[in-house]
Specification:
This protein is an all-alpha fold. The protein has 2 domains: about 80 residues, no CATH class; about 230 residues, MetI-like fold. Helix 1 packs antiparallel against helix 14 and helix 11 packs antiparallel against helix 14. The longest helix has about 40 residues.
């Protein structure tokens, strides 16, 4: 197993390099860039330094070429693409992700600043999704074909069809707007007097602000995991080894706990890395916007809109690295649940 893990860890290097390189090439071919964004923003604010100002019938103002050259130099675009690419790879080896064009901060500092929000949303949502989905999926597999199974499947289908952001809006209208109830806050992660609270009060305040965002993510995401759990356990329940165990007089509870659960959970575990990454970094973008939560998802979205290349590349680098490491952790979890699995022989 040690040899296999070392191979997987070494494979992270070419995989990470390939993804970063492909993303760099795509961005270079994308029309419009940070230089154009800066010139547009300066032009809209009316603060361009101009060498030649020509006011015609359309009030057209020519942009100073020297200013464009200064902006290119300040952002590092005076260098050829290959040199910028090699500099980026060299810096990434030491986790130097560069400086944001927009926020005037290092990308790493920005990510660390936004990380608590995304971790709060991601971990709580993932925990609740699995806490609900696994027991419900197992119960649906045991009661397959019953009225309970049909009723819950209908509810899951409806929940899966409604977008997450729509759940968020409904929860705000009913529980935060004051139209019906005003039990929860609409914006932010903490109250204004958060710093003056005791430790216990801070925890309660933090959970109070996260209730509606987390519920929005859970309601919109647990249907798929529930059906996946049901199908996995339903497949195991009808396998010959279960029939043999029943014929030997073993109790149904013991069969489920000692045999079916271990095998049925393998496919569920395989989805944990993608679930964590999906909710932690990408799945909560709209939720962060709706509830004014300044997290990593919103940071990456704004970076794309503003052509903030260091943030785009930096977040992609960290997200990809975390995903690849979590995939290795998944394999270790596989082995812990079922020691019969031998990756080195595959």
């Amino acid at each position: 197993m040690t040899k296999y893990i070392l191979k997987r860890l070494l494979l992270i290097i070419p995989t990470l390099w390939g993804i970063i390189t492909l993303n760099f090439l795509i961005v270079q071919m994308t029309p419009g860039g940070p230089v154009q964004k800066w010139l547009e923003s300066i032009g809209s604010e009316g603060s361009i330094l101009q060498r030649d100002i020509e006011i015609s019938k359309g009030d057209e103002v020519s942009i100073d070429a020297e200013m464009e050259a200064e902006i290119r130099e300040a952002l590092g675009f005076d260098k050829p693409p290959l040199e910028r690419y090699l500099d980026m790879l060299g810096n990434y080896l030491f986790f130097d992700l560069g400086e944001s064009f927009i926020h005037d901060k290092s990308v790493l500092d920005l990510m660390l600043e936004k990380l608590p929000v995304s971790i709060s949303l991601g971990l709580l949502s993932t925990f609740l999704i699995y806490l609900i989905s696994i027991p419900l999926g197992i119960l649906k597999a045991i009661k397959h074909g019953s009225k309970f199974d049909a009723f819950t499947t209908t509810l899951l289908a409806v929940g899966n069809a409604i977008p997450t952001f729509l759940f968020a809006i409904v929860l705000i209208i009913f529980f935060a707007s004051g139209t019906f109830f005003e039990w929860f806050p609409i914006r932010g992660l903490f109250s204004e007097d958060f710093e003056t609270m005791s430790f216990g009060e801070k925890i309660v305040d933090w959970l109070w602000h996260l209730t509606l965002p987390v519920l929005s993510l859970v309601i919109g995401s647990f249907a798929t995991m529930t059906l996946l759990t049901k199908n996995s356990f339903l497949d195991e329940i009808h396998k010959p080894y279960v029939i043999t165990a029943r014929s030997k007089g073993l109790k149904e509870r013991d069969i489920l706990r000692n045999h079916v659960f271990r095998n049925g959970m393998l496919i569920i575990i395989s989805g944990i890395p993608s679930a964590i990454i999906g909710i932690l970094f990408t799945g909560s973008i709209l939720i962060e916007i709706i509830f004014s939560l300044d997290g990593l998802g919103l940071l990456g979205f704004e970076a794309i809109l503003n052509r903030d290349y260091p943030v785009i590349f930096g977040t992609l680098y960290i997200f990809t690295l975390v995903t690849l490491i979590l995939n290795v952790v998944t394999d270790l979890t596989y082995r812990a649940i079922d020691p019969r699995i031998d990756f080195e022989k595959r």
